[in-house]
Amino acid sequence: MDYMEIDRANGRAMDEMREVALTREVLKHALGSCLVEFGDTRVLCAATIEEGVPGWRRASRAGWVTAEYAMLPASTGRRVPRERASRKGRSMEIERLIGRSLRTVTNLRALGEYTVTVDCDVIQADGGTRTAAVTGAWVALHDALMAWVEAGKIARLPLTGQVAAVSMGVVDGCELLDLDYREDSRAEVDMNLVATDTGEIVEIQGTGERTPFDRQRLGRLLDMGDKGIEKLIGLQNQVTAFRDED
């Protein structure tokens, strides 16, 4: 087939991610923290560990990993009201995605009866906040669990692997990796991929926003997403040396 081309910000290729940065230990009081940047999108991820588990999980001899997600008021061009008494459906959906993704690569029995909460706060939004949050949350989780090992609370790091997420989509007929807000807001197809360091898929979110897509296009988008996941997994390992801990 003939592939179309599109002019992207900073001259990015269609299968090229934005500049990604993972900065660890940005908060004094969190056991693990990471400022993740996908271009102009910035998310602060902080992991804390508490003794005990939710009531429904007691006596299970296994821990729990969960997440919370929110956008700070000045994270977009128009002020985002703080979520107080009522939570937005979008925020709840995203934090459940983050929690599911992290639990996929955590041995909850090895964790023991502790609860890890990873708070993901969007400081600045320019598309891909959920994918950035998943990617940074893993780094914060890793560091918090390492701190728990060093404190003698658990015998070994209960992580079984890494997990990261990236967006793909179709804009003006062009298949793109890691969409910024300008691209995402007019995408014909919008997709998110969450996957592990072994290439296994945790979750695919895909919608034909303005046009449906066929199996061939889905395959190409997933191939593009795999390329992004591979880069993100490499960056996670670069800042944590996780693979060297095996």
From TrEMBL:
Q: Which family does it belong to?
A: Belongs to the RNase PH family.
Enzyme class, UniProt record, top EC level: transferase
- Name of this chain's protein: Ribonuclease PH
Q: How does it assemble?
A: Homohexameric ring arranged as a trimer of dimers.
Concerning HAMAP family, the annotation shows: RNase_PH
* Keywords tagged on the record: Nucleotidyltransferase, RNA-binding, rRNA processing, Transferase, tRNA processing, tRNA-binding
Domain (Exoribonuclease phosphorolytic): residue spans on this chain: 16-144, 162-226
Q: What GO biological process terms does the UniProt entry carry, in alphabetical order?
A: rRNA 3'-end processing; rRNA catabolic process; tRNA processing
Report the source organism: Enorma shizhengliae
**Which Gene3D superfamilies does the entry link to?**
GHMP Kinase, N-terminal domain
Origin superkingdom: Bacteria
What's its catalytic activity?
A: tRNA(n+1) + phosphate = tRNA(n) + a ribonucleoside 5'-diphosphate
In this chain, phosphate is annotated as bound at R90, G128, T129, R130
What is this protein's function per UniProt? Phosphorolytic 3'-5' exoribonuclease that plays an important role in tRNA 3'-end maturation. Removes nucleotide residues following the 3'-CCA terminus of tRNAs; can also add nucleotides to the ends of RNA molecules by using nucleoside diphosphates as substrates, but this may not be physiologically important. Probably plays a role in initiation of 16S rRNA degradation (leading to ribosome degradation) during starvation.
Q: What is its EC number?
A: 2.7.7.56
An MF annotation (GO) of this entry: tRNA nucleotidyltransferase activity
